[in-house]
Amino acid sequence: MSQEARRFDSAQTIPVPHVLPALKDITPLIEMTDLDDVDFATFCSEVEKHEVIAGQIMRAARSVGTGRGDTVNNLRHAVALIGMRRIHNILDTLRQRVEDKERFAQSNESYGPTTIFQDQMNLHRA
Description:
By secondary structure, this protein is mainly alpha-helical. Residues 1-16 have low confidence and may be disordered. Helix content is 67%, strand content 0%. α4 crosses α5 (75-107).
C-alpha cells in the first residue's frame, strides 16, 4: 500500500468528529449505559443509528490503549471489547462537548461576523 493510500485509510484512524451529535441522541444512550441489565443487542442497534457516536466507539476500540492486537471490524465487537463503563465515559464527553458548544453559541448570539468586523475596524482606527 502506498504511503498516500495509507494516510487516508479509514480503518487505521477515525478522525475526531467535527460535527457533534444532538444532545437528544446522546442522553438516552447514556441512560442505557447506566442500567445494570442493558440489552446488548438493543444498545448496539441504537448506537448504529448515530454515525458520529458509533465512530467514536470504534475509534476507542481500535486505539492502542485497548492493549489488544485484534482487528475490530464492527460495532458489536467494539462494544464488547471496551465495555459499558468506557462507552459511558465516551458518551459523557460527547455530551459535555455539545453542551459547551450550545453555551458558547448562546453567549455569542449578538456577536456575529458583522460585529467582529466592526470591532476590527475600530482597532485599526485607534
